[in-house]
Amino acid sequence: MDAIKSFINIFADPRLFFLLSVVALALIVWKREIFARNAVGYGLMAVLAVFFAFGLFDENFVLIIAKPDNVPIVALIFLVIFFTWYSMREAVRNDERMAAGDDVIEKQESDRVWVWPDLVYTELISLILCTAILVVWSIGLEAPIEQPANPAATPNPSKAPWYFLGLQEMLVYFDPWLAGVVLPSLIIVGLMAIPYIDTNPKGNGYYTFNERKAEIVIFLFGFVVLWSSLIVLGTFLRGPNWNFFGPFEYWDVHKLEALTNVQLSDYVWVRGLGQSLPDNILLRESVGILLTLGYVFALPVILARTVFRNYYEKLGATRFYVTVVLFLMMLSLPVKMLTRWVFNLKYVVSIPEYFFNI
Amino acid sequence: MADKKSVGHAYNVDFLNVVFAASCLFLFLTSIWMIWDDYDREWKGYQRQFVLLESEVTRLNLDAAQEAVDEGRLEELRAQRAEAEQTLLLNRQRVDELQSQLEDVEAELYLANQNFNFQKADYDVERYAFEEVQAEHPEEAEGLRPEIDAMYERWVELGLEVERLTADRDGLREQIREFTGGVSDADAEIREITAETTRLEALLVDLEVDFVNDYLLNAPLLDFMAPTLTVQQTITPNVVDDVNFTRVPKMDRCQTCHLAIDREGFEDYPQPFRTHSNLETYVGSASPHPIGSTGCSVCHDGMAQSVGFVHSSHTPTGDEQTHRWEEEYDWAVPHLWDYPMLPTEMTEASCARCHKDTVYVPEAANLNVAYGLYERAGCYACHRTRGFDGLRKPGPSLTRIGAKLTPEWVADWIRDPRAVKPSTWMPRVWYNSNTDSPEDARRSEVEIDSVVAYLFANSEDHEFAVRRPPRGDPARGEEIVASVGCLACHIVGDESRLEAGPRRTFGQPLQSIGDKVSYEWLFDWVRDPRHFSSETFMPDLRLTDREVADVAAYLEGLTGSAGRPAEATYEDGEVGDVLLDYVRSVLPTAEAEELVAGMSVEERQLDLGRRVIGRYGCYGCHDIAGFEETQPIGIELSEQGSKLLALLDFAFVHDIPHTKIEWFKQKMRDPRAFDRSRVLQPLEKLRMPDFGMSEEEVTLFATAIMSFQTDVQPLAAQVPRSARHDALREGRNLVRRRNCVGCHEIEADGGDYVDLLDDPSLAPPMLTPEGAKVRPEWLYAFFREPITIRPWLDVRMPSFGLEDQHWNVALDYFAAISDVVGPFRTHDPVTLAQVPPEGRELFDLLRCQQCHVLDTIPADQPTDNLAPDLRMASERLQPDWILDWLREPLAIQPGTRMPMLWTELPGSFYPQFGQDGERQMEAIRDYLLTFRGGPSPLRAGN
Asked: pLDDT digits over B246-300, tens only?
């Protein structure tokens, strides 16, 4: 039993956790026919249920899972996985039909919407059920009164509301001005821009994967891997001092993590060239600045001329550049994660003199 | 699937109906659950249960009240009433006639009153209008005046009418009363006699179950209107909660369940219904801490706004209660509230929130002992603590250690002090739970030897006052030690620290002292302690050299365990290794190595000794040469009780509950416990020494620490400041810090020495009434040069050699206890010629000399009857106090043998002054005050 627990604890390491999420996404996309099977979908839910049932016998696991704040996140795990699987199943079915020359399932349904009694009735039922569930929820999961807020004693770990835990996770890799201001703004701007940059009329009103491969993969990566799974990770696996703890581990405040990350400028000057850091800030950070500028300004142009040429032609210059910049911004998080894990890289550009770090 | 054109359904409506019905039912059930959940509170159950208990208690009270009713008188009154009623019946017709007239007049009066009031209202309106016109347009005012005057006239007339009718009514009532007076008088007296039983009967009726009050008003959904089961709360404007950003009045809801906390009669009921255990001091409306202004949580802590057992964070005492609560209430260690309730045995810690800077709080026995122990153990010497600033170092001075001790003894002593003297407060620095391995033993021995070497190398010379002291008789010495009062401060036998208490461990225990010091040193010390150590608190007992020799001979014979032997030996080279370790923590390794290499073995040992003393902070408790200015090593504890749990490091200690109090307790049980399982270099280890505390001591120290809190309560909540309050506070501290209370009982505390005596009459006197009793100038002189007041006592007042500031604190303190007007009081001196002869007569008649000394000690009297020399009275006693003393000696000094001679005051048994007791007492007092020539401290040149 303990062996199983420590085995599972190993996967709570953020590196493995993230890597596995990406691998899982790739598998889902690549082997989607298998993934779309009912047996796989229901089997996944069953495995999850067994996992949580198994965990309920563990003291530390229960402490985290059964905390009233966290219970909805357990539901979130089931719901996100279920709906990912469900939409993929529908998409695969439609793709198969289209490959066979049939109409998609949705095509066969009538355009007509039965308002009375069907729509109104189902809405009413939903309303009643939601009310009842909220009542049960609020009785069952009590919100306790805690001590008065004390500015001198913040809770450890201090956690953002669950829906911001993805953002809080970004703070580990980026400075607050990026993780808290620039990137969230770009997320909102990007979401608003989607209708203008995604002009692919296919997949409108029906499930499909083959007709919208890139869009769906980007969405799944951005939403499921970078957003939802980081919420789960932030809720269940981040403990005191924002350290990582496996689901069966005791949240000991004394657990330590070695902070041995170094700046890119250290790599270049101290480790690479074997000399001390230049006094001139711009010279010191020149490599990082060039890399960053290249990532934001040169890489889109290079992509337009090389691998994404088709897209460039299809979308036109404006749309393409907006899309690619947004895409690169989204990728900056996994890129930064990877460099941190692989190279212990702290910041690409580090100018603490002006509180400016990238 | 329906055809586009036809009207169809996306869903099976019959099925939807079923789903709809099911979800409605679900919502209905959850709604009921919601209402029930809101309605079903544990405190309501307690309040229902309490109604039953209250009926039970009321019934008992009613029985008692009925017993107390004078049945005979009641019967008599009933008979009287019946008789009066007969008379009334005979005059029925006349009474009825008057009654009907009275009713008519009352009706008229009612109307007249109404007219009068209405006229007044109308007049006031018009008058205001007129006044306004007069102010703004004076020219128009005159025309309106007649109207106003007329209204006033009318109002006066109506007033006259009211007065006439009132007089008529009163006349009629008087006439009726002539007939009914007998009945109503009897009724009034009956009501008076049965007032209590009537009240209790009414209460019982109220308490009976009744549909409207008990069911309807408290029914779910209806209980928002006027429920009889309600949350009971006390809001205390002067006692506040600190909510970090501001302070708000406390809102204590404890009484919601603890319903009888401030009511007598529920002492034997189980919690939460029990009466407070000390209603006279707390909670009671006549106590100094009434619940309405003090509340509950300022003493008990906890989340007082909560009305749930677990949420309000009750704290159990002992394992048994913990287990029971876990089972009954699903109790768990509270972690959502920073300040859970204090366990009951530690509640006194909260006294210090308002009773500040004092080591004695009346009635707080545990806290007072805790503070006493805190000083005895010398906690404040390493840990700065507010209220314990500027105290002397608790351990003896080591600056002359060479003249007193041998290095071998000191090494054995510091290795494990309790192995030598089981009752000592000297803690064990080495061989503790984080230094108990064989490698640690070698290092410990190196450190111990180096400390000893440093101490002896830095010792000053000391010249004994008597070079070759005479040998004494140990048997006589034992008698002297047992009788002059040494045992008020020192333990001799195998008594434990806790049994002896903080007062009798004021001085070092004398266990094994013969192994420790030489006869010469003992003689020198007992003869004049300040000769060896000018700062010592040990007083001079004014023994003769002969007696000193006897005492020294006895003490020399007190031998015992040699202590714990060294558990390892080491090579000389290891001294250098350990020293290098120390030096490397302050210098770069190369420099450290160079420094150590340049030293001889002896130099290394001395340098290491200095560093070891610095690391363990020995100089906190002892004067050690070279450490005069060094700051103590412990963290400040002034606000330790308010420290947040998150700031306490439990490390890998998981076998105790993670609460603040348990952390403190664990720290005291084993100060090094939090090093358990940790990998640490020797200099990283915890270094608080082990005091070997018993579980009771641990609890007491935890109480003291929990009493050190951040100031939260406003001045209005604290004891009002006044000169008397300050004098009390400083005096209470002084008599404890000089251990006056070891011998004397003061304010119902202390006087431990009495318990050591077979005959309590041989004990030092109780000093509570001292301020009212003796003249301050006499007392001051006595403090400085004590004289023998009761020659039949062996125990004696030592010479303390205190400075004037301390003596004045003591004088002010005694004055403050008795609340006397001040040092100066008028009493015209009387000469023998002025004293009426009755004074002398009474003095002889009452045979005062039978017990009181008058130059000679009365013969044939047991010692417990003897009383001080009356020739001292004129210098010593306050004349007013003598009268108080004669009037009621037992009220001043419980247990005194002085008889109460005037039991018939203001009269008297004795014939003088026409049996006027007061004048008799004055005469005898005045006669006493003419005596001269008794022993006096004043004449000794003071």
From this structure: 899 999 999 999 999 999 889 999 989 999 999 999 998 889 999 999 999 999 9
| Cβ neighbours of A152 in B, within 8 Å | 244
Nearest CA-CA distance, residue B27 and chain A, Å: 5
Q: Distance between CA A64 and CA A74 in Å, rounded?
A: 10
Q: Quick check: B244 and A109 CB within 8 A?
A: no
A104 close to A203: Cβ distance less than 8 angstroms: no
Indicate yes or no: CB of A146 within 8 angstroms of CB of B11: no
Q: Do the Cβ atoms of A132 and B27 come within 8 Å?
A: yes
Instruction: Write the pLDDT tens digit of every residue in B755-803.
Output: 888 887 788 999 999 999 999 999 999 998 898 888 888 889 999 888 8
Paired strand residues for B251: B235
Same fold, B720-818 and B837-940: yes
Q: Contact A124/B20, CB-based, under 8 Å?
A: yes
- Tell me which residues of chain B, numbers 232 to 251, contact chain A at a CB-CB cutoff of 8 Å: 241-245
A150 touches chain B (CB under 8 A): yes
Q: Give the mean pLDDT of A71-95.
A: 93
* Chain A residues with beta carbon closer than 8 angstroms to that of B24: 128
A109-119 per-position pLDDT tens digit: 766 777 878 88
**Residue B572, amino acid:** D
Q: How many CB atoms lie within 10 A of CB B41?
A: 15
DSSP 3-state percent helix, strand, coil across chain B (nearest 5)? 55, 5, 40
What's the Cα-to-Cα distance from B59 to each of B267, B495, B942, rounded to whole Å?
16, 52, 69
Domain spans, chain A: 1-108+117-143+206-253, 162-203+258-358
Please tell me the predicted confidence (pLDDT) of residue B4.
Answer: 42
CA-based nearest distance B10→chain A, Å: 6
As beta bridge partners, residue B235 has: B251
* Residue extents of the structural domains in chain B: 70-193, 234-341, 365-384+634-706, 401-620, 720-818, 837-940
Whether chain B has a CB inside 8 Å of the CB on A6: the answer is no
Q: Considering chain A, what percentage of its residues have pLDDT values greater than 90?
A: 55
- For the residues A195-215, what does the mean pLDDT come to? 88
B chain contacts of residue A114, beta-carbon cutoff 8 Å: 8-10
- Nearest-CA distance A83 → chain B (Å): 22
- Report CA torsion sign: B155, B160, B166, B172: negative
CATH no. of B837-940: 2.60.40.420
Res B5 pLDDT > 60: no
Looking at the complex, does the CB of residue A144 fall below 8 Å from at least one CB of chain B? yes
Q: How do residues B53-63 score in pLDDT, each as one tens digit?
A: 999 999 999 99
With a threshold of 0.90, tell me whether the complex ipTM lies above it: no
CATH number assigned to the domain with residue range B720-818, chosen from the 4 options 2.60.120.10, 3.20.20.480, 2.60.40.420, 2.60.40.60 = 2.60.40.420
With beta carbons under 8 A apart, name residues in chain B contacting A124. 20
pLDDT in tens, B312-323: 999 999 899 999
Contact of B333 with chain A, judged by CB distance below 8 Å, is answered with: no
**Fold that domain B401-620 belongs to in CATH:** Cytochrome Bc1 Complex; Chain D, domain 2 (1.10.760)
Distances (CA, A) of B63 to B68, B128, B275, B344, B410: 9, 63, 21, 35, 73
